[in-house]
Amino acid sequence: MADQIRRAHPGRSVTLVGIMQGGWVAAQSLADLLPGSTVLAAAARRGGEGRTDGVELIAAADGLLRAGEPQTGKPLIVVDEVVDSGRTARFFLDHLSHYQPELACLAASDTAAPGPHFAAWTMSDLPALVLPWRVLRDADQTAACLLAAGPLTTAQFDERLRDLGHDIGSDLLEFHLARLAARRRLQREGDRWSLPGGTGTGHQRDL
């Protein structure tokens, strides 16, 4: 994806605007491959009565968050982790339209509207993806995805996560799985974890 951006904007640094939360992680990772680029986070601004009325741009410096602005003259690229329908991306692109933004993502459906200008993967049947930064943040979704094909022991769970590049540790993993079981998001049968109401069937693909 970084190579695609370099080819589109040769010799230029860019402003990467990561959609909170996953796009923020992806944007920071991209910045490591695009020297001189500015990284901002983008979050939906909440209005009255739970409405969303705009986009807030945020810069991070010295561990602190503050309001941020794109640098003049730099191409602006909105970054997200996954673009499926395109609804979330469209919201941010529309609110940043005065910057003439482009869209980048790790994985996209080929029916997404809008489709990304830059993507690591584009596929017709976008699976449920388990992304590194979601493992503990979205522990219930991660568990559901990994258990979709059937029950797993903690050791097997740990092995699957290691396949995805995570080294959480069995004790911490056991703690989080037990918390999910206490919330009835999964269940334990002997030494195996499974989804409530069944062992799970079907197939799964990982990023």
Topology of helices and strands:
Elements: H1 2-8, E1 15-19, H2 22-33, E2 38-46, E3 52-61, E4 64-67, E5 76-83, H3 87-95, E6 102-109, E7 118-123, H4 134-137, H5 139-146, E8 152-153, H6 154-163, H7 170-182, E9 187-189, E10 192-194
Parallel strand pairs: 1-2, 1-5, 5-6, 6-7
Antiparallel strand pairs: 2-3, 3-4, 8-10, 9-10
Supply database-style keywords.
207 residues; alpha/beta; Rossmann fold; 2 domains; seven-stranded mixed beta sheet; three-stranded antiparallel beta sheet; 7 helices; 10 strands; 30% helix
Concise structural overview:
It comes from Streptomyces lonarensis. The chain has 207 residues and is of the alpha/beta class.
Explain this structure:
Mean pLDDT is 86; it is low at 199-207. This protein starts with a helix and ends in a 13-residue tail after the last strand. The chain is of the alpha/beta class. It is built from 7 helices and 10 strands.
Strand content: 25-35%
Could you please say which CATH topology of the largest domain applies here?
A: Rossmann fold
In whole angstroms, the N-to-C terminal distance is 15 Å
- The CATH first-level class of the largest domain comes to Alpha Beta
Number of domains: 2
Major sheet: order of its strands? 4-3-2-1-5-6-7
CATH second-level architecture of the largest domain: 3-Layer(aba) Sandwich
Number of helices: 7
Radius of gyration: 19 Å
This entry's quaternary arrangement is single chain
Task: Tell me, rounded to a whole number, the average pLDDT.
Answer: 86
The residue ranges in which pLDDT falls below 50 over 5 or more consecutive positions are 199-207
